[in-house]
Amino acid sequence: MAQHALLLDALTVLQPLQSLPSMLAIRDIRRRIAASRPDLRDRGVVADLLALDPLSCLRVLRFANAPMFGPPRQASAERAVGVRELVDGLGTSAVLRTLDVPVVEPDRTRRLRELWLHSLATACAARRLAVRFGSEDPEIAYLRGLLHDLTAWLQLLGQHHNGAATNLDGHDLARRWNLPLDDSTLGPIPQRLSRALASRTPPSPAELIALAESLAEHADFRHPDSPEPCDRSASLAASAQDVLVEAHEIAHEVEARLTRFGLDRKGCDDAGGSHRFGNDEDATLFQGRTRGEAYELVLGVLTCRAARTYREIESMVCAAALRHLDLDRAFLVGVDLDSGRAFLRSKADLSRRHVPRRAIQPTRTELDLLRDAATSSAARILVRSEPPAGLCGTLASDRALAIPIPTERTPALFLVADRALTGRVLDLDVDGTAASALASCSSLLFENLELRHRRARAERDALTDPLTRLANRGYGLARLNQAIAGSRRTGQPLSLIMADLDEFKQLNDTLGHLEGDRALRIAADVLRKTCRQSDTVCRYGGEEFLVVLPDIEASDATILATRLFTAVADAGERAGLPLTISIGLSALRDEDDVDALVGRADRALYASKSRGRNRFSVDT
Q1: Which residues is 401 bridged to in the sheet?
Q2: Would the pTM of this model clear 0.90, i.e. be above it?
Q3: Could you give the C-alpha distances from 158 to 5, 23, 54, 248, 422, in angstroms and in order?
Q4: Interatomic CA distance for residues 144 and 192, integer angstroms
Q5: How do 616-619 and 581-587 pair as beta strands?
Q6: Which CATH number is 15-283's, of 1.10.10, 1.10.3210, 2.60.40, 3.30.300?
Q7: What is the per-residue pLDDT across 46-96, written as a single tens digit (0 to 9) for each?
Q8: Residue 466 contacts by C-beta under 8 Å, 6 or more apart in sequence?
Q9: Of 60, 221, 265, 554, which is most buried by a Cβ count within 10 Å?
C-alpha cells in the first residue's frame, strides 16, 4: 500500500492533470455541451470552448511553448498570448485533440467547480478592466485571469486524484512546463485596492488580476477558500454603484459564455446532476481518437510502398501513429547512439507549426533506454527528468514511447510518441506492441525504397561514364538511333557533333594521367553546361565526345560548335591546362543510318585536325 501511495504521489507530480485533465471532461458538463451541438469546424467556436477551460488552456500553453519549436525566450511577457491566438497558431485540430479526453464522474468536484466559476469570472473581469484601462491586450488579460489561481488548481487536483494535496505550486508548474506565466499572474494577491475603478492610472499586471479577482468575488463567484459569505465590506473603494455595475456585467458575461454551450451557473454548481442525462453516448463530443485494427494498420502503411523519398515514408509513419494507434503526437527521431545527439526528422501533432532542425542531447537515462531498445528491438518508456531536459524536455512530454525502426541507415531511427495533448496514460504492453508493429512495417518500406534506389543507381551507372559522369557510348548511340527514327517520323532536322581533345596524348605524357583526367572532366562540364537539356552528350571513347542535337539545323549547330570550342579553350586557360578541342559536324540525310551519320561527323572532325585544330568543320 505504501509503494502504491508513493507511485500515485509521483504520478501526480509528473502529470498533475491526469485525474481531471479538463473541466469539460466531467460527465454532466460534457453531456450538456454535447447536447448544444457546437459547430467544432468553426475556429471561433473552438476558441470560445477552450476559453471556458483553465485545465485545457494549461495543456495547450504547454504544447505551444514546447522547446522543440525553438529556444525559449526568457521574458514571459514576450510569449504571452490569448486563447484565440493559441488556436490560430496551432490550428483547430490540435486544440480539439487537447479537449478530447475521457469523461470522468462528478465525484469530489464541488470545490473544483467553485474554483472554475471563480476563475471564469476573474478572467471576464480582467478582460473588462484591460479594455477600461487600456493597460494590456484584453485577450491576454483574460487568459491570465483564467490561470491566476494555478496553485489552488494544483492543490484541488491532487486531492481529486488521491485525496492528498500536491506540493506543487503555480511557479513550479510554470517552470517545469515552460509556461509564459510569471509573478504578474501567479504572484501573491495584493490587498483590496482603494479607489481602483475611479483611478485613471492603469494598474500593473498583478494589480489588474487582483482587482479582477475582487470584482469576481463581488459578483458572487467566490473562491472555494474565501470566507462565506463574501466580505463585501472590503470595498474596492470606488463608489458602491460602480462596484455593483461592474459585478452585474461580469455575472452577465459569465452566464453568456456558459449559455453558448448549453451550460448555466446552477448546472455547473451541481456536482450530482449527471443522472438527468442519457447514457455515455450522449457525452460524445469529439471524434478525433481512433484505434484501428492490426490489419488496417498494416494495409495503410504498405499502400505507401511507392513513396519516392525517405521524407515521405517518415511523414506517413508519424501520421499512421496518430490515425491507427490512438496517440496524440508522433515524431521520427534520428539518434547517434555513439555521440548521443538526436535530431527530429518528422512530426505529426495536428499543429501547423514548423519544428526547426537542431540537435537535441538526450539525458543519460534516455540514451541508455534508447540503446537498450535498439539492441532488443523492443519499445521503451522515456520519462521526463527533473529539471526537464533531453528528448522529453524538448518535446514537452512527461512520458513518451520510444520504438526502434530497424534500418541500415545511420543514425538509428526511432518512433517517439506520446499522449501529451490529452494527458492519457501510455501502456507499454498495449501501445508498445501496436507501435512495434508499425515500426516493423515501416522498416519494410525503408528497405524497399533503399532497394529501389540501389537499382536506380545500378542502372544509372550502367549508362554513365564514371570519369566524366556523361552518358557512355552505348547510351549515346541508342539515343542517336531514337533521334534518327524520330526525325524520320516528324520531319524535323537532326545534327550531330563529334569533338576530340587536341594533343591529349602529349598532355598525358607531359603532365600525367591525373591532369589528363582533369582535362576530360573540364571538357565534359563545358559540353554539359553549353548544350541544351534536350541534347544528348556522351563520352564516345578515350578523349572523344558525341553530341546529338535533335530539332536543330546544321546552320544553327555551327553556332553551338563555335561556342563549344571557344568555351573549352577558355576553361582550359582558367584551369592552367593546354586544353582545346576540334569539332566535326554533320546533318542527317534521307539515306543515313547511325554509322553513316557518325562517319561523316568523324571525317569532318579529322578535317578540323588537319587544318590546325581548335576549330570546327562541317560535312553536310
Answers
A1: 381, 417
A2: no
A3: 12, 15, 16, 33, 18
A4: 19
A5: parallel
A6: 1.10.3210
A7: 999 999 999 999 999 999 989 888 765 544 555 678 999 999 989 998 998
A8: none
A9: 221
